[in-house]
Amino acid sequence: MDKARVAELQLLHRIGLFAQFAQRLNTQHSLEQMLEITLSLLVQEEQVKGVALYQRGESIAQIGIVPHQLIDLAVGQDQAFFVIDADYSLAIAFHLPLSAADVVFYRSLNQQLALVRAQRYEWGRQPQLLSDLYSIASRRDKLRYVRADRGYCGIYAADLADPLYITLRLRAIRLYFDDSVLLQVHRSYLVNPRKVEKACKRGREGWLLQMGSDLIPLARQSLERVQGDFPQWFA
Do 216 and 181 touch, CB atoms closer than 8 A? Predict the structure, then answer.
């Protein structure tokens, strides 16, 4: 059998493996199950001499003869190392140095694993995301401001005796609410413009926005924009 025919058969085999890999990954919900599928697929490859799975740098699964060096995937190498996430990584040893086609195939497997993993992570966050957005939207008329605080955001509203903390960051909140609902006036504050009573001078150049008994800092870089959009606050 000539080399062209061998290459064609190998390509067809890999296309089938990749399709099977993608289909099986999409049925899983945990990273551990996805990694099991990845290992089972790799050992079907005739070119693979050994595979090792690491958790925080320690080998937790090993098949065949594994590489002793951790080298990034590249043409001409007979081993490859993939970082899957902060905890898991994968090392593969091959019988022969990798060709350009080999690199494309194994990189595609890694990218598919990363893609499905990212999708599952987002799906897992979805209930929390909806809950956080509802916490803001449901008190639209009573909302006063949102303040960033040590990795969380506190919602300050007329119906809350104490701030309600959510996991969304200010940057994410701005994607869902426009300036008519929540206006960014400082790196740590989004305010409901309908609740701002007036702007107060602080020192020579500083300004504060008054909302009842609360005074919200107005960042210098936001001053010109806010003055143009809400001149009544500065009257």
Answer: no
